[in-house]
Amino acid sequence: MTEIDHRYQVSDIAALEALYGAPIAASIRKEADHVHPLYRKFIEASPFAVLATSGPEGLDASPRGDPAGFVQVHDEKTLLLPDRRGNNRIDSLRNIIRDPRVALIFLIPGMGETLRVNGRAAIQTDPALLASFAIDEKPPRSVLVVHVDAVYFQCSRAILRSQLWNPERHIERTALPSAGAILEALSQSDIDGRSYDANLPERLKSSLY
After folding, report:
1. 28 burial level (CB within 10 Å; 0-12, 13-18, 19+)
2. According to the model, what pLDDT value does residue 121 have?
3. For the whole model, what pTM was predicted?
4. SS3 letters for the chain?
5. What range(s) does the Pyridoxamine 5'-phosphate oxidase N-terminal domain occupy (predicted)?
């Protein structure tokens, strides 16, 4: 493994800007301070997003997914994101309580461009709002109301380089450690990995919502 020579560490903005140069004009012009109608189409077509938050205990990036359009555009400055059933760690929500700044990146299967949103979020539990997001008659526990500060698309280079959507590059699940194997190792065998894996498919099926 190559040793890291810390003499070459970039530690100030001037050095960073000298290394990369000025941003191209299009990368600046594509940013809007609201959900432009053309950007709205991306949000409504996306079934998957990553929510990034920051708080006193650290950073968090959390995957969020549902049928396409699960993040609703309430108006040009407001997005609504349901918080579905999970493991109750609520790392993202803890962060938002103490630091409302959030970032979202939306992915659309088969598409190279992604959409990025920066803003500030609040946690809402209005019963009528929760009911409007119900699936199988099960509402989310809460809904994030995101005030939009910036929206822009990300070009397709990362997706193209990774070949994310290329089925020939997909990896068989058995090629990597199972969830049960990881839990058994990290819990020092307090959790039975085989039982966890055996029960997982049915548990996921019955607890999506």
Report:
1. exposed
2. 98
3. 0.94
4. CCCCCHHHCCCCHHHHHHHHCCCCHHHHHCCECCCCHHHHHHHHHCCEEEEEEEECCEEEEEEEECCCCCCEEEECCEEEEEECCCCCCCHHHHHHHHCCEEEEEEECCCCCCEEEEEEEEEEECCHHHHHHCCECCECCCEEEEEEEEEEEEECCHHHHHHCCCCHHHCCCHHHCCCHHHHHHHHCCCCCCHHHHHHHHHHHHHHHCC
5. 38-155
**Residue with tokens 């019963």, as numbered in its chain:** 127
Cα gap 207→180, rounded to integer Å? 18
Question: What are the structural domains, with CATH classification, of the chain?
Answer: 23-162 (2.30.110.10), 171-207 (no CATH)
Q: How far apart are CA 71 and CA 90, in angstroms?
A: 18
pLDDT at 139: 97
pLDDT at res. 57:
85
Distance CA 156, CA 136 (A): 35
**What are 182's two structure tokens?**
């990881």
Task: Dig out the tokens for 196 from the structure.
Answer: 């966890």
Low-confidence ranges of the chain (pLDDT < 50): none
